[in-house]
Amino acid sequence: MNKEQLQGKWTQVKGEAKRRWGKLTDDDLTEIKGNYDKLLGKIQERHGESRENIQKWVDSLKN
User: Fold this and answer.
1) Which of 1, 12, 44, 46 could covalently link to 5 via disulfide, CB atoms 3.0 to 4.6 Å apart?
2) Could you give the CA distance from residue 55 to residue 12 in angstroms, rounded to a whole number?
3) Can you give the pLDDT of all 63 residues of the chain as single tens digits?
4) How far, in whole angstroms, is CA 32 from its chain's centroid?
5) Segment holding 37, helix H or strand E
6) How far is Cα 25 from Cα 11, in angstroms, rounded to an integer?
7) Nearest to residue 10, comparing CAs of 41, 38, 34?
8) Which residues lie below 8 Å from residue 24, measured CB to CB, with a gap of 6+?
9) Which phi-psi region, left, alpha or beta, contains residue 34 (left: φ > 0; alpha: ψ -120 to 50)?
10) 44 with 24: CB under 8 angstroms?
11) Which DSSP state fits 61?
């Protein structure tokens, strides 16, 4: 999923991110505002997940 697609689907992605990455707060998601790099960074910061795994998860949301 590219940056424009993420921004277009941000509402859906926010809900999925909260379910999958429970440590993300509403404030985190408000700060991210659909920014792909910020999303990856915040998940890495909170969960220690690899960037590659996070990108795969985001890409899986295309469908």
Assistant:
1) 1
2) 16
3) 878 888 889 999 999 999 999 999 999 999 999 999 999 999 999 999 999 999 999 889 876
4) 8
5) helix 36-47
6) 14
7) 34
8) 17, 18, 42, 43, 46
9) left
10) no
11) T
- Token representation of residue 49: 């997940």
If you write DSSP's letter for every residue of 39-51 in order, what string do you get? HHHHHHHHH---H
Which amino acid does the sequence have at 45? Answer: E
Which pLDDT score, from 0 to 100, does residue 30 have?
Answer: 93
Q: Is the dihedral of CA 51, 34, 11, 60 positive or negative?
A: negative
